[in-house]
Amino acid sequence: MAALAGRKTAAAATAAARRCFAAEARVVPMIIDGKKVTSQATQFYDVHNPATGELIARTPQCTPAELERAVDSCAEAFKSWRLTPPSTRARVMHKLEGAIRDNTEAIAKVLTEEQGKTIADAKGDIFRGLEVVEMACGMPSMLQGETLANVATAVDVHSYRIPLGVCAGIAPFNFPAMIPLWMFPTACAAGNTMLMKPSERVPLTTVMLAEMANDCGLPPGVLNVVHGGHDTVNFACDNKHIRAVSFVGGNEAG
C-alpha cells in the first residue's frame, strides 16, 4: 500500500509539472513572492527534449521591470527573514529534504525531459544536491559565533555570523538540480534571500524545486526565480541590491 501511495504521489507531481508547461501555457513562469508569474517578454529561448526534438517549453528573457520587481521582492522579504530564528529556517530545510526524497522520481522525469540525462543519472544529479539540503538543516550550528577572551589587556573579541542580504544564483545547463541545490538552500537557511536564474536551456527543474521550497514554508520573496540569458546575468551582477552572486559556468554567460 505504501509503495502504491508513493507511486500515486509521484504521478500527481509529474502531472502537475506537465500542467504547468502544457501547450496553452508554454512559457516557463517566473516565481515572485511565492507565486508563478507569466513574463511579458517578447524574446524567448526554446527548450527541446533532446531525445525527441519536441518543443516542451519556452524560456522568457525577462524584462528589466520584471527583474527589478523580483529583486525588490527579495529585498522586502529579507527584512523579516533575517530576523527569523535559525532553527525555524532549518525546519523549512528539513521539510524540503523530505519533499525532494518523496518526489525524486517526478523531479528526475522533468530533468530528463529537458536535459537528456538518463533517469538514473538524473536521480544522481538530485541526490548530490540533496546532500547540500541536508547540510543546510544544520545551519543553526554553523551560524554560531566565537568569543576569544583577553586577546589584549581588557580586550575580548566576539565574532558574529550575519546574513548578507539579497543573493543571486546563476546555474548552468549540465546539472539542473544539483547546482541550484548547492546555492539556494544554504543561502536561505543562513537568513539571506535568493534570486535564482537557471540556465535558459533547462529551467523547468529549478522552477519545480523552487515551488517545492515555497510549499515547504519559505515566506514569499525569500526565493524568487527569473529567466533569461546575458542580460539577466549582467543585471544580477550589476544590481546594487544584490550583495553576493553564486555562479557556476563559463565566461560566455555574461
TrEMBL record:
SUPFAM superfamilies, A to Z: ALDH-like
GO annotation, biological process: L-valine catabolic process; thymine catabolic process
GO molecular function: methylmalonate-semialdehyde dehydrogenase (acylating, NAD) activity
Coiled-coil region list: none
Pfam annotation, one family: Aldedh
One GO CC annotation: mitochondrion
Domain Aldehyde dehydrogenase: 39-254
Family, as annotated: Belongs to the aldehyde dehydrogenase family.
Protein name: Aldehyde dehydrogenase domain-containing protein
Organism lineage: Eukaryota, Sar, Alveolata, Dinophyceae, Suessiales
